[in-house]
Fold this sequence. Notes:
Chains A, B, C: InterPro entries: RutC-like_sf (IPR035959), YjgF/YER057c/UK114 (IPR006175). The structure is a homotrimer. The first copy, chain A, is built from three helices and six strands, in the order H-E-E-E-H-E-H-E-E.
Amino acid sequence: MTEKSEQAEKTEKVALTPTTHTTPPAKFSHGVRKGNILQVAGQVGFLPAEEGKPPTPAGPTLREQTLQTLANVKAILEEGGASWDDVMMIRVYLTDVDHFAEMNEIYNTYFEEQALTAPPAARTTVYVGLPAGLLIEIDALAVLG
Amino acid sequence: MTEKSEQAEKTEKVALTPTTHTTPPAKFSHGVRKGNILQVAGQVGFLPAEEGKPPTPAGPTLREQTLQTLANVKAILEEGGASWDDVMMIRVYLTDVDHFAEMNEIYNTYFEEQALTAPPAARTTVYVGLPAGLLIEIDALAVLG
Amino acid sequence: MTEKSEQAEKTEKVALTPTTHTTPPAKFSHGVRKGNILQVAGQVGFLPAEEGKPPTPAGPTLREQTLQTLANVKAILEEGGASWDDVMMIRVYLTDVDHFAEMNEIYNTYFEEQALTAPPAARTTVYVGLPAGLLIEIDALAVLG
Lengths: 145, 145, 145
């Protein structure tokens, strides 16, 4: 609690790189926190990074990728001292309108417990192109308090 | 004014569910406010919710859907003690590049009065897939002050 | 410094219109700042505005458009008293998945120097439709401190 409050006072920008993630391969951060604002970069369903192995999706299915993507977002939130309870906005990018119902079902089950402790985040879902093999991408904006 | 200031002090996350909206069917909020940050979830052109009726678009045209979508965003802003004047960013998702000119015209007329009292929000418009029958989706980020 | 701190205290919303940009043709702002939050609207690769000339892309290539788009975002950040160091999130919209590697290379070179002074921003890249002739659009959220 005290630790969290102290973090909230900081106004310098801090990169969030959980141990499950590689050092970003490009000039972006997996997440950043500045003061009470925390932004998570677009996450996809890659398994936790392993030295010397290329990024590998958790599996070919929407379920596997959605759950892994949510785990990846969560790792960054926690690295920044936040939890799903602090998340204001979740942006879901799907590649196929026909995936909406299944994603929603997975999403609802995933957030069932979270929704008991704080209102769930707002959300926008749109259908875009993603790199081959990826079915979902998610980013998130959190406000710590 | 005093009420608004009091709300601005709150740091707990509050779900915004205007009476025109259903209780969210999934684990997301139509809008959330925490402190002075208010995020509106992606809205589409559904008419105000009626008990026992499925969500129904205001009509098949871009004009009908755009105006209804803007009304839906506005209802959430107001539920959170905000107005269009507080909005920093509006994200417009269209399905068809050919709809841009008409959307812009509707948008400009809609915000003509608002722009007299505060600078209009920043905006990004991109062209994505949306569920069948929906031509526009809009979300918004507001900062109350 | 003192000037920057004073700006940070302001809670009124201010439109950011750099001299390189036209007065917005529609009811949106190229950027807005309110308190310590600065939002840059979706920028594309248009050259600095010239009286009486229509908006003109910097060129047909991804490289030309990416560099011009980044310059346009930067101009708005600076108009609001911010720099890339303050940017939390950069949203990159490409039209073609095959452009990712090249965009990334240009992006990495562009931000090489910035990354020495502060963690680079989080980023989401998705593939959408854009108006004919435009290959990239970028918007950004900054938190000043």
